[in-house]
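Tokens for chain A. Residues wanted.
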């Protein structure tokens, strides 16, 4: 079952800021993960996040595009079949997760 993919407004802005050469790879990766976005421990693609550097990301997951240095943080609502993209970024780990934590709080995710 493919989950519906939603983007918070800031994540859409993140996508628009990506270089045109990497954007298709990120879109393709997100679409692939949407087939089974739950935790890798449940047979899915998502790597669970927790408390990291004073950022509470419990309940969120990440996708890491190693070759292009991009991270995507998202939430999953299994009952509704929705995957919500919170941040798409090329920033360093700590910056990505701190910003994801702010957005999680702002959007009550």
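Reply:
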């Amino acid at each position: 079952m493919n989950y519906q993919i939603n983007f918070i407004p800031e994540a859409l802005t993140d996508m628009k800021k990506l270089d045109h050469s990497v954007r298709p790879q990120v879109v393709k990766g997100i679409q692939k993960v949407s087939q089974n976005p739950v935790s890798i421990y449940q047979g899915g693609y998502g790597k669970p996040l927790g408390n990291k550097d004073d950022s509470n990301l419990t309940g969120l997951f990440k996708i890491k595009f190693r070759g292009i240095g991009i991270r995507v943080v998202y939430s999953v609502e299994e009952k509704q079949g929705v995957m919500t993209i919170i941040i798409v970024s090329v920033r360093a780990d700590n910056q990505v997760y701190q910003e994801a934590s702010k957005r999680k709080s702002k959007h009550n995710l």
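The first helix runs from residue 9 to 17. The helical segments are 9-17, 23-33, 93-106.
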